[in-house]
Amino acid sequence: MRPSDFAERDLDEVVEQLTTDEAILLTAGVGFWHTHAVPRLGIPAVKVSDGPNGIRGNHFFMSTPAKCLPSATGMAATFDTALMQRVGLELLAEEAKLMQAPVLLGPTCNTQRNPLGGRSFESFSEDPHLAGMMAAAYIKGLQSGGIGACIKHFLGNDKENDRFGYDSIMSERALREIYAMPFMLAQKYAQPWSFMTAYNRVNGTHVSENKHIIQDILRKEWASDATVMSDWFGVYSIDHSINAGLDLEMPGTNKWRTLDLMNRSVQSRKITKRTVKERARKVLGLVQKCAKGAPEILNGDGIERTGDIEQGRDLMTKFASQAIVLLKNEGDILPLKPKEQGLKKIAIVGGNAKAIVLSGGGSAALKPSFFTTPFDGIVQALGKIGSDVEITYSEGARAYMQMPTLENDIVTEDGRKGWIGTFHSHESDDSMVAIDKPLVTRYVDETRVFLSTDYPKELTKRFTLRLRGQLKPRDHDCKFEFGLISAGRAKLYVDGKLVIDNWTKQERGEAFFNSGSTEEYGTIDVKAGVSYSIYVEYANVRAPAPNDPDEAIMDANGGVRLGGAEVQHPDELMASAVKLAEEADAVIAVVGLNADWETEGYDRTTLALPGRTDELVRKVAAANKRTIVVTQSGSSITMPWADEVPVIVHAWYLGNATGDAIGEVLSGRVNPSGRLSLSFPKALEDVPSHGHFHTEHGAVRYGEDLFVGYKHYHHRNIEPQWHFGHGLSYTTFEYSDLSLTEPEVSNGEITLTASVKITNTGSVAGTDVVQLYLSYPTTSELTHPPLMLKAFAKVFDLAPGKSEVVKLALDKYAVSYWEDRISRWVVDPGVYVARVGRSSAPQALALSAEFKVAKRLEWNGL
């Protein structure tokens, strides 16, 4: 019998044949990434893999190179559900098959409550309608390709600090209208095969134990048959989670749901055998969907593969370029046309110009099968338009939090990039003395070595990893600074001399999912043309730290990270960039954040760009009036220099095709059409949840209630730096002739259609996003946000002088709010105002029309 034959099995019969022990085993994972197999009954195991912007596969250490897509905020910035669906089918589903993973742990669909949230880049938007429609398109594309989606993190996981314990205290209206709505839309339009519960509590109860969320909302109201799995180590009980409806505990290491504990819970009547089998049946439902959707995976060899690098590259570049948002373009400096504009020399500056910045950090991170830097992409794009302009470069100001990794600076004796690692057992499980003879020798092409659980299982409980390589010769004398982080303990030796001791004692830090130390530094003098031997010794046991003598064994999150860079005086770096700016005809400053700043595991502390980045932008802009600033971040950043520069382009994190997409847009080969998927405030103090975003004795009070994102800025009459939905083009558009049909009410549904004519009034073809916002009746007894996005549509490649009539459909979701007293959705009678335009900015919503709902409507479900 082949594993895929399970597709045809009668699940009721299979469940009937399960022993209690087999049913128990099915309710928890095996290892880090698999469900449990029951060979006796022909039940195969199913592998899951991290997304949501690519398929990493099952390894953090030496993972299989893969395609990385834009961050979810970038995906949503396309406002293009059709393209999102195509990407889900042609890129994500195909990559999942290469990685032998029939379930993708994505999309992430949390609401962007505050841009400081460490995983904000992973979620689509601050707006629940945009987030929900993009999530539905993602899931439809993925699942039409036979790969199951696991939408996450259901719900209220909007920050990272204290994420296992904090309590998201919110009103039921906010829960329904803001935080559950994206998941609700995804369920209505796409039916994800699985849901992943959030780590946190909601209104007092952890979501993995929350009957209201899992049973009342997901199961009963939404009628979902999805498998509900926990986030990794997000289960905190046996009986509470089983009885609340959590079907699958993940992962299978250090789990609660062991045969012993589960059987004891049955015997003590904490749980029943019937309930255990109900949970097991839901897991089997997911297994069966996988067997039907991608039988070739279940029948396959389980080996992860990297696909053809060029296959899908055009689609990746298209998706990334459609995400880029042109925020400002005074004087039509963009697109760059060096010959027409008389540009002979362009200076490229900034800490992100040559850096490998493709994604935020944590579960979303992966090893790219290829990557184009912004610098290389811009140079290539200018070459494609026949430009022979001279390009100069200076970093100007450093942007990294941790020293850059050294994959391209350290080589093995035979010249391969990276180093050789040897794994050593210790004399006993309790000993710190390593046996000299290695158990395993391995080539390692990365200097961020996150072992997780990917170390040889034959090792003793405590083990040592020794890494040896050569620092490539440099063409000049310099000082070189190393940075060493360890989730465990580590030492760095250069030419046999101890340079960094992160072994004897250390400070606790936030790296490696909060298991690592802070970064320790050491400097050497480097002579031109000389190679230096690099040796790092790592042990998977923490060193003592002040106020924390715990020497815990790192059996899940162990790792070591070696970074480094030439020592350069910050003033000299800055001066070099300014000098190049003065000498150039135009400047492109590529600045922003990276995966150190935006990552799973901890929240940001500021919206400011790192280090002296803001100073760099101001100084090069003062030195050259033709300065183009390209920003990279997955969430909002402040731009105190916004009024001092003529051009600003926001590029998010764009994945492998980062440089290709940026080059295409700056050179005019692509006319930008991205729109901001979240508001960019002028200051942190303007953010809706400012002052009550952080946990206070475990409580996070959602005091802004319904007024999240742009709804807050309108409600408080606060002008953000950039409005939600904002984005410019290299052409101009005019809107006219807005009209609305009369609402039709039938079988508990409301439907009406808005029509608007859009005309390209510029000189080049362009693509625009039409956005419709509603205002609810002023006669309502309740407070509602003044504007809410309820529909959007994209007009593609509209030629100069041409017009197109766009139709936007509205339904009961557009006009409903949650009524706490009766636990139902309600549509109030009264006059509704529809506003249409190119962003949520009041000045961009010049067209408005009214429609009237005659009678009150109540509904529940989907």
From TrEMBL:
Query: Per its UniProt entry, which superkingdom is the organism in?
Result: Eukaryota
- In what residue span(s) does the PA14 domain sit? 414-578
EC number from the UniProt entry: 3.2.1.21
Which GO biological process annotations does it have? glucan catabolic process
Which InterPro entries does the record associate with it?
Answer: Cellulose_deg_GH3, Fn3-like, GH, Glyco_hydro_3_C, Glyco_hydro_3_C_sf, Glyco_hydro_3_N, Glyco_hydro_3_N_sf, Ig-like_fold
Kindly give the SUPFAM superfamilies that the UniProt entry links to this protein. (Trans)glycosidases, Anthrax protective antigen, Beta-D-glucan exohydrolase, C-terminal domain
User: Can you provide one Gene Ontology molecular function annotated for this UniProt record?
Assistant: beta-glucosidase activity
Q: Which key words are in the record?
A: Glycosidase, Hydrolase
Pfam families in the cross-refs? Fn3-like (PF14310), Glyco_hydro_3 (PF00933), Glyco_hydro_3_C (PF01915), PA14 (PF07691)
Q: Does the keyword DNA-binding apply?
A: no
Q: Give the top-level enzyme category.
A: hydrolase
Catalysed reactions, as listed in the record: Hydrolysis of terminal, non-reducing beta-D-glucosyl residues with release of beta-D-glucose
Family, similarity comment: Belongs to the glycosyl hydrolase 3 family.
Q: What is this protein called?
A: beta-glucosidase
Tell me what organism the protein belongs to: Trametes pubescens (White-rot fungus)
Source lineage? Eukaryota, Fungi, Dikarya, Basidiomycota, Agaricomycotina
